[in-house]
Design goal:
alpha+beta, ten-stranded mixed sheet, five-stranded mixed sheet, 30 helices, 42% helix, globular, binds zinc ion
Amino acid sequence: MALEEKRPPVTPMMIEEEAALRNGSRGLPPGPWAEAAGPRPRTTERHIAVHKRLVLGFAVSILALLAVTMIAVLLTVRFEECGGAAADGPPRAGGNGSLSGAARQPPGAGQPPGRPEEEARGGEAAEEEEEEEEEEWQRRRELPPWARPRLPRHLRPLHYNLMLCAFMENFTFSGEVNVQLEVRNASRYIVLHAHRMHIEAVRVAEDKLAGGVRVARTFFYPQTQVFVVVLNRSLEVQRSYNLKIIYSALIENELLGFFRSSYVLHGERRFLGVTQFSPTHARKAFPCFDEPIYKATFKISIRHQATYLSLSNMPVETSVFEEDGWVTDHFSQTPLMSTYYLAWAVCNFTYRETVTKSGVVVRLYARPDAIRRGSGDYALNITRRLIEFYEDYFKVPYSLPKLDLLAVPKHPYAAMENWGLSVFVEQRILLDPSISSILYLLDVTMVIVHELCHQWFGDLVTPVWWEDVWLKEGFAHYFEFVGTDYLYPGWNMEKQRFLTDVLHEVMLLDGLASSHPVSQEVQQASDIDRVFDWIAYKKGAALIRMLANFMGHSVFQMGLQDYLTIHKYGNAARNDLWNTLSKALKRVGKSVNIQEVMDQWTLQMGYPVITILGNETTDNIIVISQERFVYDSDTKPKDPARGDNSYLWQIPLTIAVGNTSHISSEAIIWVSNKSEHHRIPALEEASWLLGNINQTGYFRVNYDIRNWRLLINQLTRNHEVISVSNRAGLIDDAFNLARAGYLPQNIPLEIMRYLSEEKDFLPWHAASRALYPLDKLLDRTENYNIFNEYILRQVASMYLKLGWPTNNLNKSLVQASYQHEELRREVIMLACSFGNKHCHQQAATLISDWISSNRNRIPLNVRDIVYCTGVSLMDEDVWEFIWMKFHSTTAVSEKKILLEALTCSDDRNLLNRLLNLSLNSEVVLDQDAIDVIIHVARNPHGRDLAWKFFREKWKILNARYGEALFMNSKLVSGVTEFLNTEGELRELKNFIKSYEGGAAVSFSRAVETVEANVRWQRLYKEELFQWLRKSLTQ
Ligand SMILES: [Zn+2]
């Protein structure tokens, strides 16, 4: 699935400007830097699960209570209605097997409030039995099968028949599931997942023999979210049985399981029901063996009112209409698949369709007005091409007859790759070419490329268990760049933009002592959300890219083809992949033990900084050493048993030697010791060394100062001798090495000077992103304007050269001049953020023109910059105008940047008003509220407000997002990452002390980040300002 990308930090900066623009002199926090500069995690950095918790407070409880009473009544009635129409019929007396009565989930953990309590065979007898049983297990010193974190292995589901009946008018549904079970070890217990549902009846029967197996009792065990059926006798090995469960549940208003959302069409609110089962929510929609290893086939039927349509992974085989206005859709049987990729929807969307060369029918379903406007056409078109691309690249055909893309108004993640029915939040798939920027188009494109990759890496071959989630996510994230290169060959995404958006960004996170390995142990369901984080996505992708590069791309591709062919319709773990890739290498005569190499990168946290020393020697010998890179060397390692000293990696290092006119590349040197000597034949007196050619490796490189000077000299005299990706890499490494204290503070600022001649986008982008955290460290200091002045000088000439875009971007232009347009955007953003007067005037003029003419003629690609700059510079009327536009616009891309612009104000009253409004779900979508708070925190005028707001509202925020770790950690890090005074550090520590539990990992990361910020201020701030002062007077 795709996480919501974390936008790079672009925030308004504090600038003292006299500028009496329009209304005069508010300090200008210019700064749409936020959008542009930062790492734009494309798919979701923070994939987000917005789960709202059920109980948002008293009001909700009351409502729930009412609802439950109604449901209790309705369900009994409804169930019969629905069951009557279902193919298999309701469990009536007389079938084979015994029927057990209803079991209710016990009250408490994780149960919707207010469900009536009742027990299968209820009462004290059952309880006593249960206690006896528990004691028996205790005597055997074993956990009973239902209390273990993983399902017991004695049963295996082979096939599910699932019949559902959806009541959209009261948001309930009923279901009947028949599971065909294979018995591997004899047992009296059937333990499977089921959560937040009411179970009406249970029956167990042997497949072929008449006569069922009597059910002794049934119960829920909420701690592990399972439902237990205790039988009177053991199920026998190697026989197969049928388990039938009849149940009912709510179509929840939160974003997991089978949930509802709504939209307004022609002034009328319409509802839809859709599912999100990854990672562990299928169990909220039907009783099942909800672990990825239990692949089975599924046959689904959905009964609903004929005014709706229903969708699922497979196409509809038959539809049976009834006279009362109901219809039952019977879907074809799925191939073997994991429960979390199952999906269905009940909605009244319309669609457009296309067909691939190989005959796969692709449809895009969305609200009717969006389909009519053609907002889904772009996605539909590239999906067709991408299926063709992947079929060709993997040499494995797409496995299902159809693929539906469903655009929904609300979703916890950017998107979810359900097999054959992938679900996208509207902002990540609908695109109106007349008002979308290149960046928006890029976001949409990459999310689609990502989800389509999963149809192979994920749906077809599924990780055995969640510790390897990084494998599927890392691959899909890496392929976002490869697939986009296929669609737009000139964009060079994999060679270029990957660096800034993935590699540089994740090295920021992974450089903290409190990071974690990309492969994380996962014991229980509650740990699983934790593994969907940026480390899994971005570090996973960066490691895969490093692997592809040291293997060679064509061998890597062959290995992947083998891997998919061998494991299709099954599960695989990382070692399966490493083995297949090692074999592919062997076939071309190379021998690398991929498992041994990759284990060091995936099981250890962090990454190395390589130091290359050597220009001083005459015998062509250089010394290469490695150590773990950390931003704050004062922090204690997370695992004190092994100091940072014991971290070692096998590093595929490439080194080039260059002089003013040429560069020679060397083959890979494998560095595996703390320190090694290597001979470099071509080394001469005036030549420089450059490590990590094209930044394909996941590590940083440092040199002696003399070599840094030679490199700076090279960049100034003829930067094109060094590749674009290495120019970007040098910038990012230098800024971060300096921030961590490995390098004097002036080196990165000296490197930047060559940018006035730099015509490529990537190095500018790298500089802009690397400057961002430095800017945030300085933006509330007294001498900020010295820094500001220095940056403005570096940007001025390129800003003049490039000028502003006009508003006639058409498609061919997008294709041809993406690099140029992105460069211009980057430079404009820097100029406006740091207070270039011309840039400010231009932004103000454009906004004034919009207000006076009520026609928005602002060029699409810089709208966010102009809006933000306008809001920060101009008076409250502009803020109100943007606020009004935010409400009135229906284009999702526009809505987002309008909302973010509102956070750019330097008026603290407006910022406070916005913060308070952000928690009103009617005004700001839940998934957007976090962005509002974070963006206010990036604004130097709002940082303390957001920080205070966060602490005061923590209970509410944590109730809203706490279950969705991804969002919660985005919020925690976004609000705290730029706190940098002793006082703020104290506040943070006190705050953490004063509340209980939750988000502990995010908070320890936050403390480390703020400590590093404070340390940097103490040790290096003065050094930096001294150099800047000197440099500006020269
Ligand atoms: Zn994904």
